[in-house]
UniProtKB/TrEMBL annotation, chain A:
The keyword Transcription does not apply. Keywords: Proteasome. InterPro entries: CBASS_pafABC_assoc_protein (IPR051534), PafC-like (IPR028349), PafC_HTH (IPR043839), WCX_dom (IPR057727), WYL_dom (IPR026881). It comes from the Bacteria. It comes from Nocardioides soli. Residues 159-224 form the WYL domain. Residues 251-325 form the WCX domain. Pfam families: HTH_PafC, WCX, WYL. Residues 10-131 form the PafC HTH domain. One of its GO terms (cellular component) is proteasome complex. This is Proteasome accessory factor C.
Automatic annotation (TrEMBL), chain B:
Pfam families: WCX (PF25583), WYL (PF13280). This is Proteasome accessory factor B. Residues 148-211 form the WYL domain. Residues 246-321 form the WCX domain. One of its GO terms (cellular component) is proteasome complex. Transmembrane segments: none annotated. InterPro entries: CBASS_pafABC_assoc_protein, WCX_dom, WYL_dom. Keywords: Proteasome.
Length: 329, 326
């Protein structure tokens, strides 16, 4: 949903979209127009009242645009918007450079995940839009590149979405980085969620007997089974506020000090808090669901990250480093 | 909506209609007489300027021309219907369907809105959308880098940008000046390509390493992108090349899945540094400090045989942790 528009410019923009829309669709009810524009019905009504005061510059009553307000405001009105005398506004505005670029880049991204037949459709649509946006679009300067993981990943997502919708169980082969192993499990899918640039399957995992998130690029294979889910159906979690590792009894808050060489961590992982320290260092709070995951990260960063709390993690980190170093005698 | 906003909307729309329905240029005096009655010269000039700007920013192409060939000091204004409206794009239902899907691609509020707005305009051509027949999955494009918007706009407007940049591993940021040519996504991250005016050379910058706000530093249209620039090819050319070479490691049985998957060769059951588990020899077709970092993450499950450079990095970095602790 768009942000709530305010101001005359937005109102004029809406009207310049609404009038052609009504013109093309014929009978449109106020609520349907509001839904199509993504604003409340009262807003559309206020917009239409502005229209009533506009028209040809002659100043005669016949010059003005007419809106049948009775149909919209009277109790016996049928709620259908009728605008007359506005034929000169019947065609939509050209796409603005930002709109043209945004939609063309989005279609290019779609192209990468389409099957052969659909790719041909996307190409046709792109050609028409590019021709229509010939002036002023900077679309060729924005390149969305390949979607990470390519079409396979996007197809996997589509399969898992379908399985969630149909409440069918899925057998997953999944790579668990913290344990560095491939696992095989049956899950009851709940839906697909995204957070921090990655896409996850939220599912009830029968191996863990608990809800789990599976990062799609770590799914080696997914097989949708004939069997129906056995756990209670639940919508997927909303990760936008809680983050990937919502605080729960199973998670721990760890505080790390990062040298400049390890600052990239805050770009890659959801951090609860970041506090600048002297010498370009950062102190960060990270919610840890799995200590092994943290230990692997710390070893990767060695020696540019230090555990400030909890102390037990600092000890196991030092022990892991010593064990690795011992291999070299 | 307040009454003032409503009145301003009326004025803007009436101005647009007035300029649109006349075949000739409309004189400023006539515009003033009809739409801005009773205003002082100053107030009129200011308001008229602002109204024209607002209409232009909505995409209304207001032309300025001279009304009288003999007196070109009197400007007139008009909007050509064919310049104002979208050309008739005859979309087939399947094309309309993929265009409908495009609204769900951007995970970036402004661009998602812009796409939706574009689709609304196209929807005015009255095509019914049926997405069910499509053999397509929906990719998501995100742009979480705070400076993305500034670089995106600057690229389109050809406005120079100034920003603080921190190179990988560097402590300090430096102020950079760039004429952006394009914004490119690669491995899920956005980069900007352009002419670094301090160095007089083309450069690529990762947007996530831009610190704080990027700022416009010049007027729109103040430079040209070199003709024939392929922004992706430029980004690829300028990005640091993947380190060449070979790294040979020993990996414990049942560990190091990702290493095995991109290995050139795996030799099983070789002599290892201890006998706690069996060991396999894994050859990787890359080398350098990034590989060392990846290998460090496996702790005591991986032992580096060669090259010395990687082995030394791993040993020294582990020593730095252990030494500090003891």
């Amino acid at each position: 949903m768009s942000t709530q528009p305010a101001g005359a410019k937005d109102q004029v923009a809406r009207l310049l979209t609404l009038v052609p829309f009504l013109h093309a669709r014929g009978k449109v009810r106020l609520e349907d127009a509001a839904a199509a524009l993504g604003v409340p019905a009262e807003q559309v009504l206020a917009d239409l009242k502005v229209l009533l005061m506009c028209g040809l510059p002659g100043g005669y009553p016949d010059d003005l645009i007419d809106v049948d307000l009775d149909a919209l405001e009277e109790p016996e009105g049928d709620g259908v918007i009728r605008v007359t005398n506005a034929d000169y506004l019947a065609r939509p505005l050209r796409l603005s450079p930002t709109e043209a670029t945004a939609i063309i880049v989005a279609l290019r991204a779609l192209r990468g995940s389409a099957g052969d037949d659909t790719r041909e459709v996307v190409d046709r649509a792109l050609a028409k839009l590019e021709a229509a946006a010939a002036h002023g679009s900077g679309a060729h300067q924005i390149d969305p590149g390949e979607i990470p993981g390519g079409a396979d990943l996007v197809r996997l997502e589509a399969d898992l979405r379908r399985a969630s919708g149909a409440r069918r169980q899925v057998r997953l082969r999944y790579y668990v980085p913290s344990r560095d192993e491939l696992s095989e499990r049956v899950v009851d899918p709940r839906g697909i969620v995204t957070a921090h640039g990655s896409t996850y399957l939220d599912a009830w995992c029968h191996s863990a007997d608990a809800p789990r998130l599976f990062r799609l690029d770590r799914v080696e294979a997914a097989h949708v089974l004939e069997s129906e889910i056995v756990s209670d159906p639940e919508p997927p979690r909303d990760l936008t506020d809680t983050g990937l590792f919502p605080r729960s009894p199973e998670t721990t808050l760890a505080t790390l000090e990062l040298d400049p060489a390890a600052r990239w961590v805050v770009e890659y992982y959801p951090v609860e808090d970041v506090r600048p320290r002297r010498g370009g260092r950062l102190e960060v709070d990270l919610v840890i669901a799995n200590e092994r995951w943290l230990q692997r990260l710390l070893l990767r960063l060695a020696p540019h990250a230090r555990v400030i709390a909890p102390a037990a993690y600092a000890e196991s980190y030092a022990a892991a480093a010593r064990e690795a170093l011992d291999l070299y005698g | 909506m307040s009454g003032t906003t409503g009145r301003k909307s009326e004025r803007l729309l009436n101005l647009l209609i007035m300029l649109l329905v006349q075949r000739h240029f409309v004189s400023k005096d006539r515009i003033r007489e009809i739409l801005y009655p009773g205003m002082s010269d100053d107030a009129f000039e200011k308001m008229f300027e602002r109204d024209k700007e607002e209409l232009r920013s909505l995409g209304v192409p207001i032309e300025v021309g001279s009304i009288d060939a003999y007196f070109d000091d009197e400007p007139g204004y008009r909007v050509r219907p064919d310049e104002l409206s979208l050309p008739d794009i005859a979309l087939t239902p399947d094309e309309a369907a993929v265009i409908g899907l495009a609204t769900r691609v951007w995970q970036h509020a402004r661009l998602a809105d812009a796409t939706t707005e574009a689709v609304r305009k196209l929807a005015a051509f009255g095509v019914e959308v049926d997405e069910s027949a499509l053999d397509i999955a929906e990719p998501r494009l995100s742009a979480e880098e705070p400076s993305f918007d500034v670089f995106w706009e600057a690229t389109q407007e050809r406005t120079p940008v100034e920003f603080e940049y921190r190179r990988s591993g560097a402590t300090r940021t430096t102020t950079r000046h760039l004429q952006p040519w394009g914004v490119v996504r690669y491995s899920g991250r956005w980069y900007v390509v352009g002419l670094d005016t301090d160095r007089g050379q083309e450069r690529v910058f990762r947007l996530s390493r831009v610190q704080g706000e990027a700022r416009r530093a010049g007027a729109p249209g103040s430079y040209d992108v070199p003709p024939g620039t392929d922004v992706r090819a430029t980004a690829m050319r300028l990005a640091p090349p993947p380190p060449a070479g070979e790294t040979v490691v020993l990996v414990r049985r049942d560990a190091g899945g990702p290493l095995r998957r991109d290995a050139v060769a795996v030799e099983t059951d070789v002599a290892g540094p201890d006998r706690r588990t069996a060991w396999d020899r894994v050859r990787l077709a890359r080398s350098g400090s990034e590989v060392a970092e990846q290998l460090l993450g496996y702790g005591a499950d991986v032992y580096v045989e060669s090259p010395d450079e990687v082995r030394t990095i791993v040993i020294e970095r582990l020593r730095a942790v252990v030494g500090r602790d003891s």
